[in-house]
Every structure is written in C-alpha cells, then in structure tokens.
Write a structure and sequence with these properties.
The structure is a homodimer. In chain A, the strands form 5 sheets. In chain A, strands 17, 18, 19, 20, 21, 22, 23, 24, 25 and 29 form a 10-stranded mixed beta sheet that branches. About 5% of the residues of chain A have low confidence. In chain A, about 25% of the residues lie in helices and about 25% in strands. By secondary structure, chain A is of the alpha/beta class. The first copy, chain A, has 16 helices and 29 strands. In chain A, a hairpin with an 8-residue loop joins β20 and β21. The radius of gyration of chain A is 26 Å and the shape is globular. Chains A and B meet through β3 and α7 of A and β3 and α7 of B.
Chain lengths: ~625, ~625
C-alpha cells in the first residue's frame, strides 16, 4: 500500500487536542493513508522528485514514474482539515452548484450541507433534484427544506410546495442528511392526536425518524424562543439552531442540548465569550447561512472563521468548530479531521493569523492554489488529469445546466403605469396606511402608520417620501398583485424590480417613480428573471437571473460585477442598509419581522394575520 | 401537554457544561418534557400529592386522579443521565438478557451495546437472535461479532461461525449499531485486489458501509499496535479500541482519530492523567467489557465510573464519559443527557463521592430504588403497572427462555481415565515439552519448556508439578481431543472442567489428578454445561450453565453463590490469579497471548502457528 504523495513537516492540526504538531501526512487516492511524526519510505523506495518547479505546466497530467511517492515539503505551512459548512443556501449566492463549488473550494470549504429552499420555492422537488444532479468536486449534501412555502399557500403563492410526500422521496437519497431549518413554532408545538391531527411539520419530523431512524438530523430556526416554549420546541425533536444568538441564548440552548450553528451575525464578542468561557465548542459549529455573490468572491466559511477569531475565539477552536464539530453533527464521520482513513480534504495555510487558504486539496487532489503559494501544482500527482482547477476564462457554460423550462419561469405580464396606483374605494380626503419601515441593518421591518392625502380617488404616497412596493405573483398561478408602502428605501427618484425575492420569489417592484417602476418591471420580465435598477425612466443596472428567476448561469465574477452596479445605483438612490440587495429581497419574506408583503397583501408576521394597507378613511 | 411527574430542585447534570445546577425536570411518557430552573404548573393545576409515604404498596398500580402532575422533591439529590455501556458482553456474566437487564438497571445502566460473540460461537446467528428476542426494560443494542470463531475453523472448532452472509442479515436489524471488536490485524491490513481478494474481515467492513452507510460503526481491538501498523488498521475503517491502554497509546490513538473505550484495566492513574491533561474526554467512553456474575451483583458501569474517579478523573467528566460520549459514538442521539425530547433514562444519587444509584428511571419509569432512598416508589405514577422491578423471589424462570436445543449443546462423551494420558510415539526416556505458564494477573500465558520423564510410553507430567489440560471438542463436529500442559494452575490435588471456555467453548478439563479430572468432566457432561471443581475423586462445587454450556437460567445470585463456591475450591487448590475462573476459561482462547490450546492442539498466538506439545524426544 503505497502513498501517492507525502507532505512532510507541516504543522498538522490534531483535532482531538485542538493543537498543531509537526507531522508527515501521506495520501492514497481520496483518503489520508498515514499521519506520523516521520513517515519512512519502504525499502528500496526513494522520494519522488519534487523540486518546487513546474514540470508539466498547469494541467500537468502524468508524473514521471518514480520509485516512491511524490514528497512535498510542507515546512512552515499549517495543514488543517477542509472546512465543513452545515447550514447554507447556495441560492443566496445567486449561482449554481458547479460554480459555487469552485469558489467554496477556493475558500477551503470541502463539504457543505445545502438547504435548497429557494429553488424549491420556484420548482419544488424538481428544483432540488436539478441541484443534486450537478456533479461537483465539492461534496454537497442536502437538507430537506421544511418550509416551502415559508408560510402557506393561503398566505403566499410560491411556485411549488414541499410536503410530506416530497420529504419521503428526498429521504431516499443518502446525500440528504437532515430536515432543514424547521421554523414555524406554533405548528411545531401544536397539540393534537397521535398521528391524525398532526400538523404538516410534525408529520415531516415523524417521517424522518420512520424512514431513516438515527441517520437524519432535525435542524431548527428559533430566534428569541426561550423558557417553556424552547423546551417544547426541542421536545418536538429539533435540536439545532442557526439563528442569531445572544450570550444568554447560547447558555440556555446549550443546557437544553441544542447544537448551535453560529453565523456572522451571532459572532459577537459576547456570544464568543459565552462559548469560550463555558467550553461549549463541542456543540457549536460555524456556518455561513447566506453568502451574497460578491462576498463569495472573497471567501466562504473561511470568512466566518476569521470573524470568529476577530470576536475572540482562539483560532484552534474556530478551526475545530468549522471542521470536526459540524461533520460530527451530521454523522459525517469520514471527514472533519486529519487522520488515516479520513477523506483527504485539507487546506494549507501560510499563517493562522490571516487564515487565507494557500492551497486546498479535495479527495486527495490539489484543487486550488494561490499565486505564489509555492508550486504544488507543478507536481502532477497532486491532481488528476480531470483537475477541477477551473482553467477556462470567464464565459457562460457551454451547455445549459438546467432543464429548458427552468429558463422560462417568469409568468407575468409587463406592467403598465396603471398597475402602480393605489385606488381608494370610499370617498375620503385622507387615509391612514400601514407602512413597512425598513431598518438600516438587517431584514426586519417595523410596522408604522402614516396619514396620506387622497386625490382623484388615489392615495398620494409619493408626496410623503414613501416608496411603493408592488408584488406580482409570477408563477402563473393566479396573477395576484399586492400593494404595500415602504419607508426607508430609495430617497431619490428611482426604482428596482426583482424576482430574487425571498422566499416565494414573486416579482417585487419597489420605487418612488412610476415611470422607473414600469421600466424596471418590464426589464425583469424581458430578462425572465433578475435584479434591475432604474432611474430617469430606464433600466440603468441589471443582474440577470434567468434560472428560476433567482440564479445566474454566468460565471460568478460577472454576476458579482453586475450586482455591484445594481448596488451602486441603490446607494446613489439613497437606499441605506448594510445589504440593500438582501433588504429589498426580503420585503416579501413573511417569516421575518414584523410587517411584510405577500401576493395576498400585507401580513403581520408574528400573528400571521393579514393587515389592510388602508387602516382608516378620513 | 401535561407532564406525568416533575422532580423538583435536584442538582441536575448539564451535559454540555459538565456541571450540576439546580433544575426541575418534567417527564411525559418515556421522554423528558422540560428542564428548567422552575417549572410552573398550568393555570388551575395544583401539584399532585406526594407525601413521601407509600400509598399503594410496592407494585402501586393506579395513582389517584389529580389536577396536576405528581411532584417529587429532588432536593439534595444528584440527577444524572442513565449510564450507556457501548462495549460489553452479556455472556461474561453467564446470564441471560432478562436477568442481566435487572442488574444493569440497578447499577444505573439504561443502555448497552452487547457483542454476543460467546453465544454466537455456540449457536451462530441463531444464538444472537435468541438474545435479541428477549424483551428487556434495559435497552440492549447489538454489535455484530466480527470474529466468530476467534481465529478460524482450521485452528479451532467452534459451534458456529459468523460470515459475511450473517453480517448482511444482522445489519437489517436497526438495533445493530456496529461491527464488534475487529481484531485480526493481519487480516485487516492484508493487501489484495479491490474486492476479489479481500479477506473476510475486509468484506465485513465493506458490507457494513454498503448496507448501512454512515449509520454503523466499526469497533476495534488493537492492543499494542502502534505507528505505521496502527495507521493501517485505522485506515481500514476501524476507529475505536477498547483494549488495555497506556498513556502513550492514549495519545497516539487519539491523535489519529481513534475513539477510546476505557475498561477497568485501562483506568490507571497514568492513563487517566493523559486523558485529563489533554482534555480528551470527548473521544473517551467508559465501558465494562466483561463483568463476572459475582461482580455484576455489585455493579456494572457505575463500578467503572468509581474506578475512573479513584484513578483521578473528575466525577463530572467520568459521568460525561459514561453517558453522553458513548451515546454519541453510537449515534444514539436520543439519550445520554438530561434535556427535552431525550429518553427519560436517569439516575438519582445521594452523593457523587460514593456514586451509588439510589433510584433509577428507565423510559420514564422508576425501575430501581435502594432501600431507604426516600420513597419514590410510593408514587404510582412513577412506574407503570408492568413495572420491571423484579418482585419475584429467587427461583428459576417459569418458562424456558431459549429454544429447547439450546439446553442440549454439550455433544461429548463422558471421559475415561485413559483420556488423560499423554502417550509417547517414539522410544525415549525423557521429552522436552512446551508448557503454558499462567500469570497470576490476567489471561496471558507464557510459553516455557520443561523436560519430563517418560515411563511405560507415557509422559509423567504429574511429577513435575504441572497440570494437564485436555480440550474435548463438544459441538458434535469432529470429536477432537487436544492436550496441553499448564504451569501455575492447581498446586494441590484436584481438577476442574468447564464448557465456559473462550471463545469456542469446547469442554476444557484442567487438573493434576486423573481421578478428579474424570469426575469433573463427567459431571459437566451430565449437567450439559457448567463449571465444576473436583477433589478427592468427586465433584465438590459446581455452577450449572445449561444454556449453550455458557449461560445459567437461574437467578444471578444463585449462580453467583455457586460460582463463589467453585472459586473457593480453586483457592483451596492453590490456583492463584486475580480471576481464576477467567484464567481457566481463557486457556483455550487463541487470540490472547502467548501459547494457548485449541481442539487442534497448541497454538502460538502471535504467529497463529501450531506448536507440538512434545518438542523433542530424549
């Protein structure tokens, strides 16, 4: 049993001790063969040459025949397991699995568990399968989206739903590891009979156990739930949470046995201090949840590691929580550490402070190397002839990645100016309206009321400095159009329209100029999906999202450039938010506080009850 | 959702922090419903009465109707999860699952993973199934015995074998959690083709993955294996070890990703110091492995916790390693901690120092209470009408627990004095013989050589202070009889015979008096299995083991008494060993160092080669 190659004298991460020690690591095929202070070659073997120079050029196919394995000097490098991200959504990056794979690997992430609830909201199980069908060097496991649509078809019109039959179907695929972010607290804890009166989510949880027994996890989403409610939620079988934590919630949830998946917004100094001082690393994982396309260019889970370290977590612990604990949570016992028999998924770093992957190995093959990181890629045996290192220059993929109808999912007529008028049914001069007030940070809105003038039977919302939000059902189901008013969006004259509109992904138009709203809406319809900003009566920036109206099939850097231009217009128009794209994209998300707009109208999120736009006529 | 009962103000073990805090614990059915600093009753509810007095006597069926749940005062008590023992053999206690269950629960153990390789050596998969068919309040999961017989049918005659077909068959039962103690290093690491040339054990490991994917563990047995060999062993897929550790082996194995199951003999101060100083608790579990019948009366995994604490492990960490880490190792995520939704398996202790279970709850029901532990059992709602608290006085079970032929497994003729003579084929006056020298501690033997006189064509072994060991194949397969000589067994005149003879369980007779050997052997045959000691020409102590020749169907305390008398005779006859029963019972175990006797003759364990009894004729 001969190693393919040996990396000598690297500082290797010892997972069970969470420290580094100098070791040699031998790799055979897609697995680690041996980890030892010194790996001796067999009698008669000599080191395969590796002089640090490229021998065969970039794609280096066959290495010359040698007596012994290729030997690479890892001195001065840190060797850690590939990162494992167990709560994330590929669609947040508006890209497709193959492209996502490239950038995730570049960031040192070698395994993800994707909850594809966005594509499922458009195409249902077919959308999930289309993702699963894409072969990627990145290992992509799946969570079953538990809340598609986010609320119910009575409250919003999604393109499709995931019900118990789809859950059963998906559980047959062993890449499915969990039921994803169960969130509807009331439906989870509602009391009923043993089986007959179960809510749908209760049925889903039961079915997971019936079909797969111990081998499936139930992941939760339970911000601010505490005390008896939290106990009931966990009692129902949900024992992980990835929402925003506080120091108190970390302690309460940990004491009750909840596994915590910490994303950037949870990684405050207080939360990290709570994790560190109580030694809770074993039941904490770092996750990305959502990574916007432009952010994905800069990193993926490695970025969260940097954020955790910045917030005070020792880097050795952050590595642990980004590799071993998430793998173990998902019963992926074949990875998450550097040890014999484990997958040869690992990352080389030049220093721990910067935490920037210098080289990334997936399944034993070198899949990424930063310029000047040494010249590992010169050694042919470090990556096979089908190297996933993307050699192509930017450009659309040669063949379509999805079924043809995935490119024609925007079933919506082009709007007219008359679609953007709020008519008043009763004679009056003023109305009191319910308004969604945006935050400058995050996606929550506040419900406020404003008094607006009425003229010619129309509400004069423009004079009050508000924006109009119009949501067009676009899945071809009922042609609903719903109206809302927004405070805190564009301050200057302009508009935007998008089909990337969580979670049902209907077509949202937001603006303060009817002319611009028409232009933006029409352009999105023409593009069959996208994010368009308009001013002066015409579209001025756009990001195409032709696949299901939420995904771009071009290279990510093109998309990021396009989206950057949209962002720039948002800034010019005075839209203030840490992530304006996400802010607009969640105006229609009816599970995020407090007042949101679905294609059925305004919805009070907490009570899940409809709210009239016009509260009173005066 | 109303709790059945609430235990208030106990010091409850918080698993993720490995500490205690005052909590109320509510139980509903077989699960924990809530764990909170204070559990409030619903409006209009009042505490169900519980005055500490017995109301309905021992079996207390129906509790009176009450407004609220029964409330029990847990002040001053420690409440910890039920213990989880993931490496053990029920047959080591020479008893059957139902009886074992009673004593394990009494000791606070609520879940075990049993490797039934002893009964499998006698009856094969049918024996394992017979164990699995016994319903017990104790949760018994199973390991598939990977080494039945311990070596091969070429080297020893067992009653049955477990091959790849049996592995496939057993994997269908979801109580099967792992492949048990893979031990044959050479067969594990032997290199061959991809599938065609695999060894049987390699096939078994592959099949486990194919049939059950992530949901099955591969458990190992690799004492003293280190360095490259250890890497290869782990690379083959085996990532746990329960054999004797040293401080060095703990560190080396942990660094390579091995989970360590520490039994009593591993719990030295040095090993515990290594675990503690490197914080290796997460990947360490406490296990019993073998518990003799008389020891089982005194405890089970609780005893190992006491030993660990005695050796220097903080009790909070020992609890962790006896509850949560073993449950997690086996993917038993529904237990091992006190939290909502977890199994209501828990133990009340009066103090941590003594670590003696005062009350034990399994599936929410009180199944054991020590005299004077309070009067929990007075509360009817703490245990159902089918309480597993054994109310019967000692006596044989009313119905047979196993199929009829399990009681007739000793297929061996009664021996004659002539069976105990070693004849010499060649003319000589002396012979040089290979002798198994017993240790006074443990089961290993040493290979030594002795020169013995020959008279009348027979070896005069008695004059040299040796004992004769004669092994009769007793499974009805070939009638083999094999001879060995033993140093360090009985010093005075006597003999013993047993069918409890690891692992093939043939009939071993050991003694220095032919008359006594005949008497002991004949009595074991009459009993159809057992452990018999004889002196002065007649059996003087005996423990019946009628089921397969290895298990007693009487209550454990009767068996323990009987076995105690056998032990006493061993002592009187000068047999010096920390566990003389086990010492004799492993003379025929060909995977324990260094020279052992199978029904084919003497075997050198390391080389697995046969050794002649007579090395030279002089």
């Amino acid at each position: 049993m001969r190693a393919d190659y040996i990396i000598r004298n690297a500082q290797v991460y010892l997972t069970f001790r969470q420290c580094f020690a100098e070791r040699d690591v031998a790799v055979l095929g897609d697995k680690i063969l041996e980890v030892s202070p010194k790996i001796f070659l067999a009698d008669g073997e000599r080191d395969g040459e590796h002089d640090g120079e490229r021998e065969n050029g970039e794609g280096g196919a066959g290495a010359p025949k040698r007596d012994g394995p290729t030997v690479v000097d890892g001195s001065g490098m840190y060797l850690i397991p590939g990162l494992v991200d167990i709560h994330m959504h590929i669609e947040s990056s508006m890209t497709y699995p193959k492209e996502f794979s490239y950038f995730a690997l570049k960031a040192g992430t070698t395994t993800v568990v994707a909850d594809s609830h966005e594509i499922a909201n458009v195409f249902g199980i077919e959308g999930i399968r289309a993702f699963m069908d894409q072969k990627t060097p990145l290992d992509i496991f799946y969570a079953i989206p538990s809340s598609v649509p986010a609320t119910s078809m009575e409250l919003e019109t999604a393109g499709a739903a995931i019900g118990t039959e789809e859950v059963r179907e998906l559980l047959k695929d062993d890449r499915v590891l969990c039921l994803g972010e169960v969130m509807n607290f009331q439906e989870v804890v509602r009391e009923g009979g043993r089986t007959g009166d179960e809510t749908q989510i209760q049925q889903m949880i039961r079915i997971c156990g019936e079909e797969r027994g111990r081998d499936v996890r139930i992941e939760g989403h339970c911000p601010k739930i505490t005390g008896k409610d939290l106990n009931r939620f966990i009692y129902a079988g949900i024992d992980a949470d990835h929402t925003q934590q506080t120091a108190d919630s970390v302690l309460e949830k940990s004491d009750l046995g909840m596994f915590l998946e910490l994303q950037a917004k949870s990684l405050t100094k207080e939360v990290v201090e709570a994790v560190c001082s109580h030694g809770l690393y074993e039941n904490v994982a770092l996750v990305t949840d959502d990574t916007m396309p432009d952010h994905l260019l800069e990193g993926q889970l490695d970025r969260i590691v940097r954020i955790a370290v910045e917030a005070g977590m020792p880097v050795e612990k952050a590595i642990y929580c980004a590799t071993y604990t998430p793998a173990r949570r998902m019963h992926l016992d074949d990875r998450g550490m550097i040890g014999p028999g484990k997958k040869a998924d690992f990352v080389l770093l030049k220093d721990l402070e910067g935490f920037r992957p210098a080289a990334v190995f997936k399944d034993g093959r070198l899949v990424h190397e930063t310029a000047g990181a040494g010249s590992l890629s010169g050694s042919g045996s470090l990556h096979g002839s089908d190297s996933p290192i993307r050699s192509d220059s930017p450009g659309a993929p040669k063949e379509r990645l999805f079924p043809p109808h995935f490119y024609h999912s925007v079933h919506c007529k082009k709007a007219q100016p008359s679609d953007f008028r709020i008519k008043v049914e009763k004679p009056c001069t003023k109305v009191l309206v319910n308004v969604m007030k945006l935050s400058t940070f995050g996606t929550a809105t506040q419900r406020v009321q404003r008094e607006l003038a009425v003229r010619d039977g129309q509400v004069c919302w423009q004079e009050a400095g508000l924006c109009l939000a119009v949501l067009f059902e676009r899945h071809g189901k009922n042609g609903n159009i719903a109206y809302g008013l927004v405070e805190g969006a564009f301050q200057k004259k302009g508009a935007a329209a998008t089909t990337w509109c969580h979670d049902s992904h209907n077509l949202l138009v937001l603006g303060n100029s009817i002319q611009d709203m028409v232009a933006a809406q029409n352009r999105v319809v023409e593009l069959e999906g996208g994010f368009v900003a308009a001013k002066e009566g015409r579209p001025v920036a756009e990001a195409r999202l032709p696949v299901g109206g939420i995904i771009c099939d071009a290279p990510l850097n093109e998309l990021a450039d396009d989206l950057g231009r949209v962002r720039q217009v948002f800034r010019e128009l005075g839209y203030v938010n840490n992530n304006a794209i996400m802010s607009m994209g969640t105006v229609a998300l009816p599970v995020s506080p407090a007042l949101k707009l679905t294609d059925h109208g305004l919805l009070d999120v907490e009570s899940q009850e409809r709210i009239p736009l016009i509260e009173a006529y005066r």
